[in-house]
Amino acid sequence: MYSLIKKLIFTTSSLTILISFISKTDALQQQAIKITNPNLLAQIQEPNIDRQEYPLELLEEYTDENSMSQVNLVDHLRDVSPTDWAYEALVNLVERYGCIAGFSNNTYRGNQTLYRYEFAASLNSCLGKIEELLNTSDNISREDIDNLLRLMQEFQTELALLRGRTDGVQARVGELEAGQFSITTKLTVEAIFGLGSIIAGEGDKVTVLGDRIRLGLETSFSGKDLLFTRLSTGNFPDFRDNTGTFSGNLAFAQPEDNDLNLEVLFYQFPVTDNTNVIIGTTGIEADDILDTVNILDGDGWSGAISNFGTRNPIYLPPAEAGLGINYRVGDITISGGYLAGSPNEPSDGSGLFNGSYSAIAQVAFTPSDSLNLALTYVHGYNQSDTETGSNLANLRTFTADNFTEAVPTVNNSYGVEVSWQISDRIVMGGWGALSKVTTLSTLDAQIDRGTQDIWNWALTLALPDLGKEGNLGGIIVGMEPWVTESSIDNLPEDEDTSLHVEAFYQYKITDYLSLTPGVIWITAPDNNSDNKDLVIGTIRTTLRF
To answer: What sign for the dihedral angle of Cα 306, 312, 318, 320?
Structure first.
């Protein structure tokens, strides 16, 4: 009989077949419990949860009167303690065959009492390991096989339930795999329909309705790497032509007349367990390389509604291709990158190394789950524009608009960013930054060589789950980039200071749909107190799946 059982264990590949065989040879198995409640599997939770979630009523719910009469209720319902024979038998199997990994000191959870379903899960793991050993070796003792059969007999109900859960999950996974876009690629679709209006200010009071559409392809070949491709289109306008300033620009503006284009293409992969590298040929930006340390940074589709509220402006130099690296050690993440502005243009003053570029470095420190700090440095050539703040703070755009061509510049920027989660519902943050922009030559003898000091700062308040789980409230108060000092005679500093005040409420309608009304108030637009205050209102509808 023993040899027959051993042979069956050796040749079978299914736990169900083995249990069925035992049920034919044992009288108790012939009266096995029948599960009558089809919702039972949905009620059985993972084995390491609170035991109070398995009251007597739950077991009575899935056993009929006949089966209950055949079960010793005390033995069936009680936990498995270290003093039970079953516990000791499984410990011996674990120690001999290493069939459960991951416990300290290679012991089976010390002296911890286990719930029966937790014990059965561990037993099931041992069954699989010993089955593998039987397929390659006969060095399994008769005593161990006898103990294994006894354990299977006593925990037959729990094993059957566990097997049912596994089969159900495998069937569901099969359905998802059959209907998915690709076995290696995930498709994401993001559609923004924005209603925006210049409510007050110097320019025309206009209301527009536009869109921004993005299709993202996330491909992984090893499970740890990422090939990211994004196609985009849109027609939501930039309000600068109406307002006369970069201040208050909306984060989801994309005035491309709905022409579809390849917006982003990069590949990210690990070099070591602590080091990741990213290489991009199109649309790679600073936030693809490093953490911007702002919970309100949703890249336009969620969170802040303005460019300024999305992230510190020193993260916004224009870029196309580049290389980045991240190294994490303990609570510290060190990031660095090189971003080129016109890498695909084979002409003088362009290309990967001969044209505009930014070199960026950051050290981020996360001493706890609730606190995040970062120090950032950016060195750039001909990348002094961030499309936020005053016109003078975007020197190359300003000179290109007012003179025959833009002035060559070098900029060095220094920033500090912080995010502090006070509670589950309150997150405070902010940043401050100084940019020193130096002109490299005169232009038509109209602009002298010199340096600008450009500052910006912000305080942010995020209110996650405001009113409902998944909602987000946000307030940003700060000053967009403005020139505080200039040694360029022909280009003075900004006359006045301008305040940026922004508030929004992102309401989650479904998991795929959100509605975000928001308002931006700019005092002294373009840092000129003679200008009327600018007020921009918007309603952002985001579909994302």
So the answer is: negative
